[in-house]
Amino acid sequence: MATERFAPAGFTAPTSLVTEQFRLEPLGPQHNAADLAAWTSSIEHIRSTPGYPDGSWPPLDGMTPEANLADLRRHAEDFAAGKGFTFTVLDPDNDVIGCVYLYPPEADGYDVSVQSWVRADHADLDTLLADAVATWIAAEWPWRRPDRYGR
């Protein structure tokens, strides 16, 4: 996704957001099986979520566990390098129920692109998650003009 660092030099990214309904932590290879199960169970729901307008993700035919693992490793590498910040969304039982992506903006006038999704069986958390992340960005991140894709 990102090719160069977009967080300011010296900025240390927050690694957690906790609410009563969910918790965010950096996405990594340890989430592979649960992440793959989460998004493959909810492809149509995710494709209808604001921020996924081009219809290319998630892929309709899924991914192999190895391909998903490679994707998670790339996200973890981006996080470590400050190129992008991807978080898994966990429910109170530590089951993966979604993801949050903070990456360089694609549209002019913004300083961060903010995308999120939840599993279809947790659709009631879509707006709650997006709003909690917006509040978190305003309080703890260096960006002031997030592209929330109409949220």
UniProtKB/TrEMBL annotation:
Gene3D superfamilies: 3.40.630.30. This is Twin-arginine translocation pathway signal protein. It comes from Ruania alba. The lineage of its organism: Bacteria, Bacillati, Actinomycetota, Actinomycetes, Micrococcales.
